[in-house]
TrEMBL record, chain B:
Pfam families in UniProt: DabA (PF10070)
Gene Ontology cellular-component annotations: plasma membrane
Protein name: Probable inorganic carbon transporter subunit DabA
Binding site for Zn(2+): 300, 302, 483, 498
Top-level taxon of origin: Archaea
GN (gene name): dabA
Species: Halorubrum persicum
An annotated Gene Ontology molecular function: zinc ion binding
Region (Disordered): 774-811
């Protein structure tokens, strides 16, 4: 929702609508498959990820993958072709691809072809598919007064980008986990309305069974 | 000091009333009222109703439906009612059964509810088993200490009373909160407070008792929980005064009537089974033993085995047997890919060995590893992307179309999706294709358990199996068949797996026993002990998929047995078709395309009833399969093979009554109580289940954990029960004296029998195959011969006894 508003704020109403649809698919799938979430686990953390020997090559490959993702996005959606607020959206795509590539490249358990090839192989077509949906939505919106109205870049845009970057780094480093206060505040913020909790099973009314 | 021990002992006493709740990934079908089993059934359900508010007997409507369908025999009902001094017409008496549950409103709702809310929030955070990205801080210090750290930041926690300044020691907190109350009230206070969120407290109890990995990483005890709870209650100013015991005795007649109806219902089911077993026993005594079977298949005693066994026997010269589904090997099992070892034996047994799966075929293993690490890394990358807000939005946009496609495919063509996944799965070799189990003794330990089995242990487990089942003859193929269910998107999938394996699949246990028996050393030792195992007997393992009735046979056989195995496979396919047809019909589907239908149910993410599980269970027959092989027991009976004539000392019988009978009683009690009160003892409708922290489900958004089986596993629809809530009727085929001896040393079992938690009937082959019912205190009551009192009843089998056929066949 917040992301959609941001997209609209940046002047990409078509992108906001596309997000609504795609996010809808994603959320629906998550809700409908919640029953499959239960698994048996052990408390110890997963084995540490072994870094690859050729660190430079890994970083280069990761960067290249991220930039390629951004390039495909720019090319196929037309967002970010000029220096305006669309660049911010490109930044998100670069970031996501970069993050994924970073996750895969460091895995020595995988053969090199998979490590370097899998993310581009999956992400570039996925971005293309996104572009297709985006074009479709934009086409469906022809006739609407404003579909795309990018704004000029301002300091505020820079601030948003920096904020996201900061959050990214903080979460990767696990800084947030140091604050109990933050934990409690977030946990409380995520609590549902008291009226929807069933603390006494007797009150569960299953429609007259037995 | 003394106060401390008083409090600790008081909590221990009170905790007995809490029924253990297992984490849902390892669901155990246990009696929710196990803490009351030392009381007579009637008293136990009354006390439990006072404490937990659950019904103890089926509803008036359930009894009426059973009467209308003829499932309650009017004569049996009349005699049960007369025994209790009721003379009136049953229909009139039925009206007097009270259907409402007298639930006393607990205090003034809002304050206590606020405490429940705060507690369920923190318990769900603390007890989370690896689901949360950011878990509760300080969990490794224990619940009380961790709560003490977060409480000051939580505005929901009141800032007055004991909770405002929690002492470091939980006992001191309890002492402070209990100060206004006399010591005599403490235990009732504990009981009442532990019963307030029975799902969570049951989970805590189980976790503390089990001392598993999560408990040692993040310890919690009922004492710590009570300390937090009492402190919070003190903080909001709730009066802890326990309510004044049971209600007026006025409601008792309603319960007494319900008990009469229930007993009559049980007696009606039981007499049918007993009569037929007795008749078969009579007939069998006069018949010649049949020839050597082509194959012998050993199944779990599970009621679901009964259906497939019947159809396998019909498909060829096969003999089937029932044995505990963990195949008598009390092991902790670690599969090749498993994140954690699992106890593959019933909770009444402690694991004594560690069996691990180790790769033996490197090429295949590499192929497997490549695929599984790709899948693993993909999963982790997705998790990583979703966990970071900077990449989550981009991920959702890029992956959204894929989710949309998957959404459509799984909803519209679930069967095709299963085929597709099967094909993908087939490309990846299964564990058992390249791994062997370490069965050989290793002289090492893993998690405190010896790895593998010594020669003596191996011989013992194999011999015990054949002794308990009373085997004297071995076919060319002997197959130990474990079982597992296949279900999609189902938090309750463990409840459909093997109850004897603590909610795990039984295949690994079957493999262990087959490996043991195939060991030439063990075979030699078995021959010494008098089991004549022919040279050409081959032992195999397999797994019965209870959802689709497919039986997968593991491993290979020597060239000489290829033809036998091929024929067995073909016959199993036929048996599968017939078994699924029977089961599809019971689920209201078309029996014609039953294999496809059951496969759809196994794969459909919208399916709330992949299979009926053990619903319907009501009986447990201990005796030779020949006694029941001609009967259609409708998937309602547990079957344990046993032959009294090969068990002169009664040791095998003793083991069966102490082990499998107790496990079946657990299962039966869980089904019973989940059916009679699905809200309190069950878990309500699956449609609104909400899994939490890998440990349980909520109904709706949160609150207490639901504890038992879901509605769809028990009821055809909301008003129409499928499972008939009856206490277990055990039927044993053996001389009465031997059963008495077998029971003599087992107080736990005689206690259950004396308290009417299950019934025991013996068909005595040495006394003209007459039936005797266990009364109490080791007394037996002969069952009146029904053919004498009501000759008009439909009993076609009675006259068709031995006489005519063999006489003519002779010449």
């Amino acid at each position: 929702m917040g992301f959609m508003i941001m997209q609209a704020g940046l002047g990409f109403f078509g992108a906001a609508l596309t997000h609504l649809i795609l996010h809808g698919f994603y959320k629906a799938y998550q809700f409908l498959s919640s029953g499959a979430q239960v698994e048996r686990t052990t408390p110890d953390k997963k084995a540490g990820r072994s870094a690859d020997g050729s660190a430079v090559a890994a970083v280069a490959a990761t960067l290249a993958t991220g930039l390629a993702g951004g390039a495909v996005f720019v090319l196929l959606t037309g967002k970010g072709t000029s220096v305006d607020s669309g660049l911010l959206l490109v930044l998100f795509v670069v970031f996501t691809t970069l993050h994924a590539a970073r996750g895969a490249v460091g895995r020595s358990s995988l053969p090199a072809t998979v490590r370097y090839g899998a993310v581009p192989l999956v992400f570039l077509p996925a971005i293309a598919l996104y572009a297709l949906v985006y074009r479709g939505v934009s086409a469906a919106l022809t006739g609407v007064p404003v579909v795309t109205a990018p704004t000029e870049l301002t300091a505020l845009h820079g601030l948003v980008a920096v904020a996201f970057l900061g959050t990214y780094v903080a979460i990767e480093a696990g800084v947030h986990e140091r604050s109990r206060r933050l934990y409690v505040a977030l946990l409380n913020a995520s609590q549902p309305s008291p009226g929807t909790l069933l603390t006494n099973a007797e009150e569960y009314d299953d429609g007259g069974a037995q | 000091m003394s106060t401390q021990t008083t409090i600790e002992d008081g909590i221990d006493d009170a905790a007995a009333t809490v029924g253990s709740v297992w984490p849902i990934h390892s669901f155990v079908t246990a009696n929710p009222l196990s803490g009351f089993e030392d009381l007579p059934f009637g008293e136990a359900v009354t006390q439990a109703a006072d404490l937990l508010g659950g019904r103890g007997y089926p509803s008036r409507e359930a009894f009426r439906a059973a009467l209308d369908d003829g499932r309650i025999d009017p004569d049996a009902l009349e005699s049960e009612l007369a025994d209790r001094g009721y003379e009136a017409d049953p229909a009139t008496l039925l009206e007097r059964i009270d259907t409402s549950v007298e639930s006393e409103p607990t205090d003034d709702g809002t304050d206590a509810e606020r405490v429940d809310r705060v507690l369920s929030k923190w318990l769900s955070a603390f007890l989370d088993e690896g689901h949360a990205k950011w878990s509760m801080p300080d969990r490794d210090d224990g619940f009380y200490a961790a709560f003490r750290e977060v409480a000051p930041h939580d505005a929901e926690v009141p800032d007055s009373g004991v909770v405002a300044s929690l002492p470091a020691d939980p006992i001191e907190a309890i002492e402070a909160a209990l100060e206004p109350y006399p010591e005599g009230q403490w235990v009732p206070v504990f009981e009442e407070q532990l019963a307030a969120l029975p799902g969570w407290t049951g989970l805590i109890k189980q976790r503390a008792d089990d001392e598993g990995a999560w408990q040692s990483a993040c310890p919690i005890t009922l004492t710590e929980y009570l300390a937090v709870r009492l402190a919070l209650l003190d903080g909001v100013g709730v009066d802890l005064e326990p309510s004044t015991g049971p209600d007026a005795p006025g409601t008792d007649s309603s319960d007494e009537l319900a008990e009469a109806f229930l007993s009559a219902w049980e007696a009606s089911y039981r007499s049918e089974v007993v009569e037929r077993v007795a008749a078969e026993s009579r007939e069998r005594a006069n018949s010649e033993p049949s020839g050597r079977p082509d194959a012998q298949l050993v199944f779990c005693i599970d009621t679901r085995s009964e259906v497939i066994r019947r159809h396998i026997e019909a498909a060829g010269a096969y003999e089937t047997h029932g044995y505990a589904g963990f195949f008598g090997v009390p092991m902790e099992y670690r599969g090749y890919d498993a994140a954690a070892p699992v106890d593959a034996c019933p909770p009444i047994v402690d694991a004594e060995h560690r069996i691990s799966e180790v790769p033996t075929d490197d090429d295949t293993r590499e192929r497997h590893d490549r695929w599984s690490s790709v899948r693993e890394v993909a999963g982790e990358v997705v998790a990583k992307l979703k966990a970071n807000p900077a990449s989550a939005f981009g991920f959702v946009e890029n992956a959204g179309s894929g989710y949309g496609l998957a959404l459509a495919a799984r909803t519209l063509v679930p069967g095709r999706v299963r085929d597709l996944l099967d094909t993908a799965d087939a490309a990846v070799p299964d564990d058992h294709e390249f791994c062997e189990q370490i069965v050989q003794h290793q002289h090492t330990h893993a998690d405190g358990l010896p790895v593998g089995l010594t020669r003596e242990e191996k011989v013992e487990y194999a011999a015990t199996a054949f002794e308990l089942m009373g085997w004297t003859e071995f076919g060319r193929l002997v197959v130990f068949t474990g079982h597992a269910s296949e279900t999609a998107n189902n938090p309750y999938d463990a409840s459909l797996d093997c109850g004897a394996c603590a909610g795990s699949p039984g295949g690994p246990n079957a493999r262990v026993l087959a490996t043991i028996c195939a060991d030439p050393d063990v075979k030699a030792a078995l021959r010494e002990r008098g089991f004549e195992i022919p040279e050409d007997t081959v032992f195999l393992a397999g797994e019965h998929n209870t959802t689709t009735d497919e039986i997968e046979l593991y491993g290979d056989v020597p060239e000489s047995h290829k033809a036998d195995l091929d024929r067995l496979r073909a016959d199993l396919a036929v048996a599968r078709e017939n078994a699924t047809a029977e089961r599809a019909e019971s689920m209201g589907s078309d029996p014609a395309a039953s294999v496809d239908e059951t496969e759809r149910r196994a794969a459909d993410w919208a399916e709330t009833r992949p299979e009926w599980g053990l619903a319907g269970n009501a009986g447990f027959v201990v005796g030779p399969r020949a006694l029941t092989s001609d009967l259609d027991l409708d998937g309602r009976a547990f079957l344990h093979s046993y032959d009294w004539s090969t068990d002169p000392e009664g040791d095998a019988l003793e083991a069966i009554l102490a082990g499998p009978m107790v496990v079946t009683q657990w299962i039966n009690a869980q089904y019973y109580f989940s059916t009679v009160d699905n809200a309190v003892y069950g878990s309500g409708s699956k449609v609104t289940h909400n899994p939490v922290g890998n440990v349980g489900v909520y109904q709706g958004n949160g609150g207490d954990l639901m504890t038992g089986l879901p509605l769809q596993s028990l009821m055809a629809d909301a008003d129409d029960p499928y499972h008939q809530p009856l206490r277990l009727s055990t039927v044993v085929h053996a001389p009465v004296e031997r059963v008495t001896d077998a029971l003599a040393d087992n107080e736990a079992v005689t206690g259950l029998l004396d308290n009417d938690w299950l019934s025991l009937t013996v068909v005595d082959p040495t006394r003209d195959h007459r039936a005797f019912e266990y009364e109490r205190d080791m007394e037996w009551q002969p069952v009146s011969d029904p053919s004498a009192t009501e000759p008009a009843a439909a009993e076609p089998e009675a006259p068709s006894a031995p006489e005519p056929a063999p006489a003519t066949a002779d010449d």
